[in-house]
Structures are given as C-alpha cells and as structure tokens.
Amino acid sequence: MTQTFEGPTFEGVAVSLSWIERAVALITLTRPKQMNTLSLEFIREFNRALDLIDVEGTRAMIVTGQDRAFCCGAHLRYFAGPEATFVNSFDARDRYLTDIAVLFDRLEELHFPTIAAINGYAMGGGCELALSCDIRVLAEHAKIGLPETKLGAVAAAGGVQKLIRHVGRSRALDWILRATHLDAATADRYGLCSEVVPASELLDTALNIALELRKLGPRAIAQSKRAIYVSEDADLRTARRYGLEAIAMLVGGDEWKEGMSAFTEKRTPGFDNW
Length: 274
Description:
Belongs to the enoyl-CoA hydratase/isomerase family. By secondary structure, the chain is α/β, with parallel strands linked by helices. It has helices at residues 40-53, 90-109, 125-132, 159-167, 169-177, 184-189, 202-214, 218-233, 236-250, 254-264; strands spanning 10-11, 15-21, 24-29, 60-65, 69-71, 114-118, 121-123, 135-139, 143-145, 182-183, 195-197.
C-alpha cells in the first residue's frame, strides 16, 4: 500500500487526505499527541476532505487514525483548563456539538461506502465517528465505547441512538451507563464490526473491502445504502416505497444493463473500471 493515485489531496493540522487506490480515498486523523480528538481544526478539515471526495467517481472511503488512537472524542481542553471556552458559552458549545453531529450525519449521506479502520482507541465522539461509517474493521488491540458518564457528560452527536440501533436498548443501556470500554472481540461478538484483524493487517483489510465494493454497481450501492438508512427511521410501507422508487431509477440504466448482461453471459460485470 505504498503507491498513491491521482486525486485531490491535502495535509491539514488534524486531517490528511490521500488516495490509496483508484477511486478509493483515505482520510487519516493526524494529531496522535492529542489522541486525534474532535478539535475545531478536525471539523473544518474533515469537512474539506469530504468536499473533495464527495464527487462522482469516488467508490469508497477509509477513515483511520495515527498511532494508538483512532479518535478519542471531544477536545476536552475546550471544556477544562485554560482553553475551556465552551463551559460558560451555551452558543459556542451548542455550535461545536452540532457541527460534529452534522459532520457525522454527512458520512451516512455519502453516495459511496465508508469504512472505519479502527487502529486503537475509539472513545466517545470517536465511537460516534466509527458508528457513522458504514463498515467497521477493528485492530485486535482496539477499544471502542461511549464512556461519557465517567466524565459527567453524555454522547451528544448521535452515538446513543446509533448504538441502540446496532445492539438494542438493553445492551446500549448497560454499556453507556457503565462507561464500558469494549475490546475488539466483544465488539465483534455483538455485531459492531465486520472483522477483527492484527494491527499489521488493518489497512490492507479495509482496502480489500473497498476493492470488493468497487467491483459492484456504484448506483446500486448508493441506493442500497440509502434504503438501509431510510428504513431505520421509516415505517415498513414508507421504506418499501423507497425501495420501489430506487429500483425504478436503476432499471434500464447503463449499470442495470451491464449487470444483467454479465449475468446472462456468465462473466464478471465491468463495474470496477467505471
């Protein structure tokens, strides 16, 4: 994975963007000394990365962190110590937390799949970031959780709601109220991730998933992803109606024709090069 591929790139203070394969973007959180926390620079630069990535032709995105943390959540210096500007300002605090939540929601709305390659601690807002990605791969030593009750706080960027959807109310109550740090094996057992792998294999595993996705119909993936997220909030009839609308948009199009032709001709569809 040493080769890079053409595409818009940048190196920010907290985030970098590169391309590790054609149409496969890599966002790396690059403030390991601060445990890759959700600083104002992080929010601004992550949004900038998405602006560059969220274009037709992008097929997958991987998010990972440098060193021992994936992301350890809110930048606590904003809430304690000399930089604690948010403690006495509701507006500043609300804007900060809202901007994080909007950023995480944006991940779910992307037309291509997102993969969290969780290289270490994914705590608080870092767990919320991971849960906002479509697919999660954990290194064997990684930890994930919403330990805000240990800090006298609550996960406010969607993590509570998303954890309930993944593991149910009872398990979410147990883990959140007890500020549990889940090891990778436990996260895997309860369906929070797709794979657990040695740290040395983490990015290669995430990339292989991305390349597998690249071989499938991009519009079909986009519509399937959207159907899943719509179904979480909609009643059965509304969700089913969305599915009918989605298939109507696909039938007869170039992607549909290629997929059907490949099936009848017993060959692999050529989506990998689209």
